[in-house]
Amino acid sequence: MALLPLMKFTASQRQQRTVEAADPGEAVEELQEERSLRVLWMQQTKQTQH
Question: Shortest CA distance to 11 belongs to which of 39, 40, 33?
Fold first, then answer.
Protein backbone atom coordinates (compact mmCIF):
# COMPACT_ATOMS: atom_id res chain seq x y z
CA MET A 1 0.00 0.00 0.00
CA ALA A 2 3.00 2.28 0.37
CA LEU A 3 3.04 2.64 -3.41
CA LEU A 4 -0.20 4.66 -3.51
CA PRO A 5 1.17 7.98 -2.18
CA LEU A 6 4.23 7.40 -4.33
CA MET A 7 1.99 7.07 -7.39
CA LYS A 8 0.15 10.30 -6.60
CA PHE A 9 3.52 12.02 -6.24
CA THR A 10 4.75 10.56 -9.53
CA ALA A 11 1.57 11.68 -11.29
CA SER A 12 1.98 15.32 -10.23
CA GLN A 13 5.69 15.17 -11.02
CA ARG A 14 4.92 13.73 -14.46
CA GLN A 15 2.46 16.54 -15.24
CA GLN A 16 5.09 19.13 -14.35
CA ARG A 17 7.76 17.34 -16.36
CA THR A 18 5.46 16.94 -19.37
CA VAL A 19 4.85 20.69 -19.38
CA GLU A 20 8.57 21.37 -19.03
CA ALA A 21 9.71 18.64 -21.42
CA ALA A 22 10.56 19.92 -24.88
CA ASP A 23 11.05 16.34 -26.06
CA PRO A 24 7.69 14.53 -26.43
CA GLY A 25 9.47 11.17 -26.39
CA GLU A 26 10.55 11.89 -22.83
CA ALA A 27 6.94 12.52 -21.79
CA VAL A 28 5.86 9.24 -23.39
CA GLU A 29 8.59 7.44 -21.47
CA GLU A 30 7.30 8.97 -18.23
CA LEU A 31 3.77 7.80 -19.05
CA GLN A 32 4.86 4.23 -19.72
CA GLU A 33 6.86 4.20 -16.50
CA GLU A 34 3.85 5.33 -14.49
CA ARG A 35 1.57 2.84 -16.24
CA SER A 36 3.86 -0.07 -15.37
CA LEU A 37 3.98 1.22 -11.78
CA ARG A 38 0.19 1.26 -11.63
CA VAL A 39 -0.05 -2.27 -13.08
CA LEU A 40 2.49 -3.48 -10.55
CA TRP A 41 0.56 -1.83 -7.71
CA MET A 42 -2.74 -3.34 -8.88
CA GLN A 43 -1.18 -6.81 -9.01
CA GLN A 44 0.12 -6.39 -5.46
CA THR A 45 -3.29 -5.19 -4.26
CA LYS A 46 -5.04 -8.21 -5.78
CA GLN A 47 -2.56 -10.54 -4.09
CA THR A 48 -3.14 -8.99 -0.66
CA GLN A 49 -6.94 -9.06 -0.98
CA HIS A 50 -7.17 -12.80 -1.78
Answer: 33
Q: Where are the domains of the chain?
A: 3-48
Q: What mean pLDDT do residues 7-12 have? A: 67
Give Dmax (Cα) for the chain.
44
N-to-C CA span, the chain: 15
| pTM check: above 0.85 | no
| pLDDT, tens digit (0-9, with 9 covering 90-100), for 17-42 | 555 656 667 777 888 888 998 899 88
How far is the C-alpha of 4 from the C-alpha of 38, rounded, in Å?
Answer: 9
